[in-house]
Specification:
9 helices; about 85% helix
């Protein structure tokens, strides 16, 4: 059960991450926002600068699933601000939330997998989760571009990506509840994962 909460949650998460990263410049240019590449570069800089201190802080965070829910919510709010607030404040909100929240993105999957399944057989478990999770990075950009081609706007695609982040957040919440359950602990011990 934990696998079917965690892997699709990561799939929805990385679908939005991959699609927005791939489509961001075209998104801004389709809305006639000047400096699209600069906005993307500043967002990447925020992520890069935040990654080191956040990575160091992660060793002291026990509630990784709560962090994953918070990061996922930040990504949803960033996209909704971008498509609903047609001013600089929407772009600034996006840059800050997408940059800071996205700084955690590469660290979430291994942290969640080890918290859910332990470190024994990490490669096999992580590989199986990754097959499903990173499929989102393949289909997200293609789906977003197809919606743009069909509608002439990225609004629907970005709203759907935001909804996908919310679905991921709900799945992470379910996984968080499941990991605390007695049945999960007993199953993990029987499988030798704890």
């Amino acid at each position: 059960m934990m696998f079917w909460l965690l892997a699709p949650g990561l799939m929805f998460f990385f679908s939005g991450q991959g699609a927005v990263t791939t489509l961001a410049i075209d998104f801004f240019e389709s809305r006639a926002v000047a400096g699209a590449a600069t906005i993307v570069a500043i967002t990447a800089l925020v992520r890069t600068i935040a990654r080191l201190p956040f990575g160091l802080a992660l060793s002291r965070i026990d509630r990784v699933f709560a962090l994953a829910m918070l990061v996922t919510l930040s990504q949803a709010v960033a996209l909704l601000a971008l498509v609903t607030v047609d001013t600089r404040s929407g772009i600034v909100t996006y840059v800050v939330l997408w940059g800071v929240g996205g700084a955690f993105a590469p660290m979430l999957e291994p942290l969640l997998v080890t918290r859910a399944f332990g470190v024994r057989n990490f490669g096999a478990v992580s590989g199986m989760v990754g097959i499903l999770a990173f499929g989102g990075q393949i289909f997200g950009p293609v789906g977003g571009a197809a919606l743009f081609d069909a509608t002439g706007s990225y609004t629907l695609a970005y709203v759907l990506f935001a909804a996908g982040f919310i679905v991921a957040m709900v799945l992470f919440a379910g996984a968080s509840l499941r990991i605390r359950s007695r049945s999960h602990r007993e199953a993990a011990e029987r499988a030798g994962m704890r």
